[in-house]
Amino acid sequence: MRRLRNVKIVATLGPASSDYKTIRALFEAGADVFRLNMSHGTQDEQKARYDIIRKVEADTGRPICVLADLQGPKLRVGTFVKDDGEELVEGAAFRMDLDITPGDATRVNLPHPEIFAAMVPGSSLLVNDGKVRLKVETCGKDFANCIVAVGGAISNRKGVNVPDVLLPLAALSDKDRADLEFVCQLGVDWLALSFVQRAEDVLEARALVKGRAAIMSKIEKPSAVKSLDSILAVSDGIMVARGDLGVELPVHAVPPIQKRLVRAARAAAKPVIVATQMLESMIESPVPTRAEVSDVATAIYEGADAVMLSAESAAGQYPIEAVTTMNNVAISVESDPIYREVIEASRRGTKNTVADAIVSAAREIAETTDIKAICCFTQSGTTASLVARERPRTPIIALTPLVRTARRLTLTWGAHCAIAEPQDRFKGAVLAAVRAARSDGFATTTDQIVVTAGVPFNVPGTTNILRVAPCDERLISVSEAE
User: Fold this and answer.
1) Does the N-terminal or the C-terminal CB of the chain have fewer CB atoms within 10 Å?
2) Are residue 391 and residue 451 in the same domain, yes or no?
3) For residue 114, is pLDDT > 60?
């Protein structure tokens, strides 16, 4: 199954999409990656979804990527005397403390001493997705006396955000550690890490993952934006988690941050997902709003590797229609000549290594001659990732003998992944590339392809060879005879 677009689609699975028929239909409609949200559902439910994904993969013969998204620490207020909570009035005093007594209109329990330890006068506390905003006037190790800056309803266990301080909290809660081990044993391809504030959070997770999955850092806090370079350096990819960013930062600051994150990830040849509320109205409507379509299109014009559906596909009434809509928007955008202008204008001339020069040359050759595909024979995925960074006009075929590499690369922009026999000579890689290009409909016997690889084989990061190869029977016959 060959996609007619380069950007990938991530679909979250949930109550509305947990059976074989629906997951198969989502894949056929355009979903390339399935997200297991560990914030919802039991481990048994997630395993059942994972098993169905792998059955769809076997039945369709195409690698499918699975992304497990860890919940992260959840900061919440305690309970109130009134079940429906209280209405806080702007300008009123309100206290948060460690007292577990149910709250009222003047105070409530905040069972997180780490927050009080990090807070200073002037800090902000945001409750219920930022609908209620408190400004800290005085604070200590077990309390914060605040003024209500923006009033509103506050009730039992509403979430709390602390946007302007670096919290002394690990990115992994006890639940996250248990879920991490569970999904790694399950065999997921990517692990999305929530509540990342600094590079050390990613390194802690990496030590636990032990190479069993690639790590995607969710950029959802102002501290993560400030530490982007160091976080990106130790991550395998990033997610622009616009929901929490929009709570902890002014909403008008999110679009420039999104653009910066996409460009930074692309320059590093690491995949970037743009997520949250992309087709939100399709939870209840079979058609999206014009603004939502424009939002998806903007992410694609920026060169994002993937765009993500959350509740739209997990709990909405129209999961298949949501994927179909996103697929159609992507095809339409990528068919626009302005799309190529934008993508090519944002391309950086990074040629610091032999590998950089090889993939840049592959793109230039492919775009200035009648080349049907750039075929990357890759062990670790590095070669294909570097080619994808170039955002070529020519299709990318990622050939690998490793199923897990093919699955992980499915998240990468433009990568059509295929499993190939292990090779120890470049000529064998060329033969495999020719066969894949022809069998998957990219080329015929009269066409040519570009083949890149690293020699010696089976050594990650050694991209150093390029060949223009004809897709005719003579090449196949000669190669098979040798």
Assistant:
1) C
2) yes
3) yes
Active site residue 218: yes
Indicate whether 340 belongs to any domain: no
Question: 204-239 as b/e, with b when 16 or more CB fall inside 10 Å?
Answer: ebbeebeebbbbbbbbbbbbbbebbeebbebbbbbb
Range of the domain at 388: 354-481
Considering the entire predicted model, what is its pTM? 0.93
Tell me, yes or no, whether 397 and 253 share the same domain.
Answer: no
Exposed / middle / buried, residue 304 (Cβ in 10 Å: 0-12, 13-18, 19+): buried
Is residue 350 among the annotated active site residues? no
User: Which pLDDT belongs to residue 456?
Assistant: 83
307 and 197 in a common domain: yes
Q: Among residues 24, 47, 76, 404, which one is catalytic?
A: 76
Site of tokens 């670096």: 166
Q: Choosing from 218, 221, 270, 363, which is the catalytic residue?
A: 218
Clarify whether 35 is annotated catalytic: yes
Average pLDDT in the 264-289 region?
96
In a domain, 317, yes or no: yes
CA 278 – CA 353 distance, rounded (Å): 37
**Between residues 425 and 399, which one has the greater pLDDT?**
399
Residue type, 170: A
The number of C-alpha atoms within 13 Å of 418 and in the hemisphere containing its C-beta is: 24
Question: Quick one: pLDDT at residue 351?
Answer: 67
Per-residue model confidence (pLDDT) at position 146: 97
Tell which of 104, 135, 161 closes a domain: 161
Quote the pLDDT of residue 480. Answer: 46
Choose the catalytic residue: 5, 8, 35, 266.
Answer: 35
The reply to whether 365 and 446 lie within a common domain is yes
Q: Encode burial over 245-259: b for 16+ CB neighbours within 10 A, e otherwise.
A: bbbbbeeeebeebbb
pLDDT digits (tens, 9 = 90+) for 35-47: 999 999 999 999 9
- Among 51-60, 184-193, 235-244, 427-436, the minimum mean pLDDT is found in 427-436
Residue 311 lies in a domain: yes
Same-domain pairing of 38 and 179: yes
DSSP calls for 153-177: EE-TT-BEE-TTS-----S--HHHH
For 426, the token pair is 């470049």
* Domain CATH for 377: 3.40.1380.20
| Residue 482 pLDDT | 42
Domain end position, chosen among 134, 161, 188: 161
177 included as an active-site residue: no
236 and 103 in a single domain? The answer is no
User: Are 232 and 328 in the same domain?
Assistant: yes
Average pLDDT over residues 53-72: 97
pLDDT tens, residue by residue, 314-329: 999 999 999 999 999 9
Here the CATH number for the domain that contains residue 121 is 2.40.33.10
